[in-house]
Design goal:
This protein is of the alpha+beta class. The protein contains 5 helices and 12 strands.
Length: about 200
C-alpha cells in the first residue's frame, strides 16, 4: 500500500551556507504536478530541481545542477518513502561553497526525504467501478447499501425496466456490497463485473 500527501509539506535544510527548501504536494496527474512545480519554484533561487511520480509515470529535473545529482535523488526519496501521486521541488540558494556531486546528491535527496518523512500521509485506496441495474421498488434498499459500503453514484438513468446506476467504491467493499444486495433483494439486482479503477 502506498501513500500520498494529506497536505502540502516543506522542509528547510542548510548545507555549508547553501539553503535547500523542499516543498511537496499531492498531484493526481502530470499536469497538476507540473503546475505545482511552476508555483513552488522560486525565480530567485540558484536552482529549482524537482521530481514527481504518478503511478508508473515519473519525471525529474536537475535544473542546471550536474546530471543525476538532484532530480534523481529527489525521485529516489519519493520512492524510498513509499509515496505516489506527489510532486517535490527542492530550491537551492548557493552559498558560495561547492558541495561536489556526492554532497549535492545527499543535500537534494536528504531535503526531499526529510520533508516527506515529516509530512502528513494519506493512504491511497484502490477503487472499483460497478454498473448496477435494479427495479424501481428496490431503489431504497440499494441506496441504503451504497451508503453502508462507501459507494458513490457517478451516474444514474431511469428506463422502463428500472434504474441503472454507475458506482465508484473502495475495491475492498465491492464483494460485500454485491452479497448484501443479492440477499436484500433476493438476487433481483444485476451488477456488472467490477473493474478496479485507479487509486484515490
Amino acid at each position: 500500500m502506498t501513500d500520498t500527501l494529506a497536505a502540502p509539506a516543506s522542509h528547510l535544510l542548510d548545507v555549508r551556507h547553501s539553503r535547500f527548501l523542499a516543498q511537496a504536494a499531492a498531484a493526481d496527474a502530470p499536469a497538476a504536478a507540473m503546475d505545482f512545480i511552476a508555483r513552488a519554484s522560486d525565480p530567485d533561487a540558484t536552482h529549482n530541481c524537482w521530481a514527481w511520480r504518478i503511478g508508473q509515470d515519473y519525471r525529474s529535473s536537475d535544473d542546471g545542477e550536474p546530471a543525476g545529482t538532484a532530480g534523481r535523488p529527489i525521485l529516489a526519496a519519493i520512492d524510498g518513502q513509499g509515496y505516489d501521486r506527489i510532486a517535490v521541488v527542492v530550491s537551492r540558494w548557493f552559498g558560495g561553497i561547492k558541495l561536489g556531486a556526492g554532497g549535492l546528491v545527499r543535500a537534494y535527496g536528504g531535503a526531499a526525504a526529510e520533508c516527506l518523512r515529516l509530512a502528513q500521509r494519506q493512504p491511497l485506496v484502490a477503487m472499483a467501478e460497478l454498473e448496477l441495474a435494479c427495479a424501481f421498488e428496490d431503489l431504497g434498499t440499494v441506496h441504503a447499501a451504497l451508503h453502508a459500503h462507501a459507494a458513490e453514484k457517478t451516474g444514474e438513468r431511469f428506463e422502463t425496466d428500472g434504474a441503472h446506476l454507475s458506482l465508484r467504491l473502495p475495491a475492498s467493499e465491492a464483494a460485500a456490497l454485491q452479497a448484501r444486495l443479492r440477499d436484500a433483494t433476493r438476487d433481483r439486482v444485476r451488477i456488472a463485473t467490477p473493474m478496479t479503477a485507479e487509486t484515490d
